[in-house]
Model the fold of this input.
Amino acid sequence: MIGPGKYDDLCTIVREGAKARGVVLLVMDGARGQGFSVQATIDILVQLPQMLRTMADQIEADTKGPTN
Done:
């Protein structure tokens, strides 16, 4: 979905506060329910799917614990 999400206002605060070109905000069990907001330049947005896949792989590996 293109356009503001339900947490877009908070995403703007984070992006501006961090002086970042891109922010992905994921909210779980928030006051407005589940949701996310993305604010990014087009070059960052194009990279986002791979970045999220890498992140998901790392989270999954971390939650499985150490391998012996």
About this structure: The chain has one domain: 8-62. Residues 14 and 20 are 8 Å apart (CA to CA). Helices lie at 8-18, 42-64. The chain has a mean pLDDT of 92.
